[in-house]
Design goal:
Chains A, B, C, D: Its main location: cytoplasm. 4 copies of one chain form a homotetramer. Helix content of chain A is 42%, strand content 17%. The first copy, chain A, is built from 11 helices and 11 strands.
């Protein structure tokens, strides 16, 4: 039987995402609710190694539910990838009396947590925080819904000018390995065509699609492109290619970049963060370890960290069809 | 075997909600994709009775995916509640060659559709469009997610001034019969207490909760109240009651009202609208009738209109507990 | 000759407004830039009386330029209206070594500052912070521009639903004594008619205007009403009156309330706050006292506090005409 | 004496900007108010050459006051730079009975208007519509205030992630020849340093400033850079340069691009558009020609087109100092 947890550490790690602060708040307040101490660990695993800790009570997380970013800061730690680094980190946790850990982050952060757990048997729980939505075991990662809204609000603005000048815009969104943002924001923004890492539509199809669009009477168009698309050209080369092949088009490029990671979280992300935070802490208190909490249908469930790391959430292929129909 | 559908009518009915335009667009473009004609019917059933029809091609729904409200307008029709009204409506559909109907609306609109179908055997499909999220058969109604974001953005602003003056605010949100908006937006906005129609917490508990909040060091608080809460006092009476019993509190009231129905839809609502519109039209084309399309987990499914009307989506009681923990 | 200022106190007083934090930041950093100490005084004059002071360096105002509300909190102090209260306050300033004061607030706050200065000869400078824009000596008060944007964003949402249902909305905005918000937001939101405290158009004209609007083919309309309008009926009585006299109209009411005071400040308000803060501190350092800093044309200027208090900014009557033409 | 104007044409030309639609609406409704006919000319001067005209009554501009872009579309016309092009355009105006022209656009558009006026004596009035705010004769161009808000909202999001990771961001904003956007949005967004076309601070000063920033305890910073800055390196080269010289910095680049031209106009821009539209039409009706309407202080005034074209609005050098103080 696992010994009773009395003090929980919480950290954010990897790329930040909207909702991380709401999740920190949920972890801190759930600890307080159960009369457990809570320690904030700064700058992810690096702060764990350096002992950058701070006690957190329910009032230390006032007025952060609606703030983007993470008050605990985030970082990527090379040192934590070494056994020596992890040894120091473990020593610091022991010294501080921390006996359970909640890690808010993505794949890489969970891998760190799992290795740490396997070496020291230290109780860990993961909360999926990344805008990319590519983590297996949850239908929504924290920050994904907010990022989608950020993207469509920007494309709505771009559409104003595209439509005033009868122009074609290529909009690059985040997603090195996963097309979730591109696919959903593309449908939401009414994109003509969507290029994602999971599927190589080929350059011919893009040209065809743009030709058809012109023929069907559309005066302006948006193409949404994930960073990691497989078309073999970056977004600026693609512009040149299309302009060379379809001289009737005047193409503009917009690379949205890091703004997609920031901003006040959507209601969906705030509620999700609250539910995940409660579940993560209460699961540790029930003696569970080495799981990620996630959303499945309408319920919060647990997925072994190992599975969350090894697998990926596939894109919903129905959406590719919806996108095609919508661009009629 | 059902005869083949060749011309589909689409209307919006009842209270409008963000995403209705995106759903109209989806219906129109799915028709075009399948080389079916599509007719827009203005002002809901009333326009059906008056023959207020307009042919819609894929270009008539350009640039509306991001617009609040409904370009087809909405209305409540008393005449359609009479057999004579429905007879006129049916005659108009026949005259116009319309042989399938997509109704975007809520409970009342679906009841109209079902009666119409039962009397004339006319193929109908429902798309749940209402901000209240109280329709059985879908985990999200169109517009609900947008309304949640509208509410928390406003409460975020109210919190600025509440917190600057150490004040208590009572914020009334929509929801005569259902507490979904209050409960989720309340958690999202970090409310101290949430009053909903489904549960009478009692006045004593509200006072206790506010006393505890003061004692725990909170300087300002928000209480979110659904229109239809069961506490037996309206929001202004409640203010007087609390100020009489807890003189340390200076209460302000804010009634959010109709702004909750408007605004550009969230990405979630736009994608949902697109998926529901595709499914509604393709289901009619497959010979199905008398269903509502809805979201179940990650999939679009069908629920018999009869069930959608008779049942209601319960609030998630786990959220009441999350709310309580979050206000620690 | 005035003695050299070495330590400046800053406080916010009266109703809060967006941009107050940006002004606090500007005061604090201008002090740091000139190697002067800066003390934050909490809860306005009440905190001055209670000695609720905190030293502020340039890093204590990090990341607040974009936050609504005021980190120094605000309050109305009855005690400061008494000679005893002001005596205590003065004693506290002397004890803390504060020898100059920047007051961010409105009319009432400036009156307090002027009395305090007249009694103790204490150097004071005022920064106009109020959403109402009714302070003489500046063409824009801090927070006014943000409040205008808040109002039109909400009315844009209301218009979505108004236009979907062919309805008339009465929208009440802040402004007990001044119609600046109503007049400008009314024009910005495309209101049919605007009711302000400065001018009693009379009920007949409102009915005429609404009749004309219907006749001209408008299907929905917005009337913007300042709290302090002179029409002699509150907004709910007005609804009843219009519905009784123009039965073709279905009127809805929306009272915007305190949300108008909150929210992230607009760029205009942030830049204005920065300029006013610099000028307030540097004027004190130059030995000036008893002035308000304000915007005149494109320049920051000084107005004696006495004038700022006794006079009011008139509404621009040209705008009444613009509004009438726009509702053609 | 000038003959009486009976039919006014209105067009938008050059890069679009938020508020152009509000200005079109104002022109159309002011014509209606004065019982003058109004003709919308599509795609700027090119549509004038092609006779792409449409009659516009007060109801044709319903619900556009809040829309970005321009419903009349915009374009740059090479043909209008030739005498033959202008001759065709003039012929079309005469044929359509148009006897006055309102041109909404920037420098280039005004040059076209002036040449056209000088050749044919055709009455023209200019409305300054461009986000760059570099037009002489008005303290605000249409769309500039909205663009500032768009930029700071995006930088607020970037700041969330910058601050979570202790990073430095270079944000490139529009402004090939003018630093108004960079300077004001930079102050509004709390930028560490601002690079503008009007002033070459030099690379040394940038490095110094960043070193000082680190030393003063700032963990993250934003540098705002106008497209046309004079530092001699593009934003990506600048990143490499800074990282080479200050290895303690991890720099990210964000190029905001065309989103700055779109979006729903701010209240300021909507009111300004309404006032400018009224003045432009009424000035034509008074027999005036060859002027630009603009904002001077709080009043709308006229500037000869010739002056508006030849001069430029200088940046306010006081703001450079404010920016320096604010980054203390």
């Amino acid at each position: 039987m696992s010994k009773t947890i009395k003090k929980i550490g919480v950290l954010t790690s990897g790329g930040d995402s909207p909702g991380m602060n709401a999740a920190i708040r949920a972890v801190v307040r759930t600890c307080a609710y159960h009369h457990i101490e809570c320690i904030g660990i700064y700058r992810g695993y690096q702060g764990m190694i350096e002992g950058d800790f701070k006690e957190m009570g329910p009032r230390s997380v006032n007025n952060i539910v609606n703030k983007g970013g993470t008050i605990l800061k985030s970082a990527r730690s090379k040192e934590f990838m070494t056994p020596e680094g992890r040894k120091k980190a473990h020593q610091n946790l022991i010294t501080a009396g921390i006996d359970g850990l909640v890690v808010i982050g993505g794949d890489g952060s969970f891998t760190g947590a799992e290795v740490f757990n396997s070496e020291y048997g230290f109780p860990v729980m993961g909360i999926p925080g990344t805008i990319d939505n590519d983590i297996y075991g949850t239908s929504f990662t924290l920050g994904y819904d907010t990022a989608l809204n950020t993207v469509i609000e920007v494309i709505d603005k771009i559409r104003d000018t595209a439509s005033s000048h009868n122009r074609l815009f290529f909009v690059e969104v985040m997603g090195r390995d996963a097309g979730h943002i591109a696919l959903n924001a593309g449908i939401g923004a009414g994109a003509e065509e969507i290029l994602i890492p999971e599927e190589n539509l080929g350059l011919e199809r893009l040209l065809d699609s743009l030709k058809k669009s012109k023929a069907s009477g559309k005066s302006s168009s948006i193409v949404v492109i994930a960073e990691g698309d497989k078309i073999g050209k970056n977004v600026f080369e693609l512009k040149d290619y299309v302009e060379a092949n379809l001289p009737e088009y005047d193409v503009r490029v917009s690379v949205l970049g890091h703004m997609q990671r920031g901003g006040s979280p959507s209601c969906f992300d705030r509620v999700l963060a609250s539910r995940l935070g409660v579940k993560a802490v209460e699961s540790l208190l029930e003696g569970k370890s080495n799981y990620m909490v996630g959303l499945s249908g309408d319920k919060i469930n647990l997925t072994p960290l190992e599975h969350a790391i090894k697998n990926h959430t596939e894109i919903d292929r129905e959406l590719l069809r919806v996108s095609e129909i919508m661009s009629t």
